[in-house]
Amino acid sequence: MAAGVVVYDGDCGICEAASGFIRRHISQVDVMSHREYGVSSLASVWFLTFNGRYEGADAVSRILRLSEKRVLRMSGIVIALPVIRIVARIVYFIIAKNRRRISRLFGLKACSVPQAR
Question: Which ranges does the record mark as transmembrane (predicted)?
């Protein structure tokens, strides 16, 4: 049984790349696009567990802590530290708001989400 479900924006190149990384490195979770989950749009990654829904950097931290790889688990722990958590949330917000531009920059599928102004 999976430890949770990761729901990502299936219209976003960065999100698709991240979901592939999760599928390869964190087998304890199920991964599905927002469409597969039945949501019309998604502003940040969700991690759904029996304890609730986590979003953005908080979700990333919890997902990484489930990895079989020590370096990924440790990264998830570091992201959850009080000061680092604040920085991680800011960085996540900036990337999420600019993901369309960033996706194009890296040659990934451009998001249908409107670009930040």
Answer: 74-95
What are 4's two structure tokens? 């949770």
Q: What are phi and psi of 54, to 5 degrees?
A: -115, 145
Residue ranges for the chain with pLDDT beneath 50? 113-117
Residue 43 tokens read as 């502003």
Sorted by sequence, the CB contacts under 8 Å of residue 73 that are 6+ apart come out as 64, 65, 66, 67
SS3 at position 51: coil
pLDDT at 115: 44
Domain region containing 59: 4-105
Tokens of residue 70, six digits: 């020590």
In a domain, 113, yes or no: no
Tally of domains in the chain: 1
Classify residue 49 by burial, with Cβ atoms within 10 Å: 0-12, 13-18, 19+. middle
Full-model pTM: 0.88
Residues 6+ apart with CB under 8 A from 113: 9, 11, 12, 41, 43, 99, 100
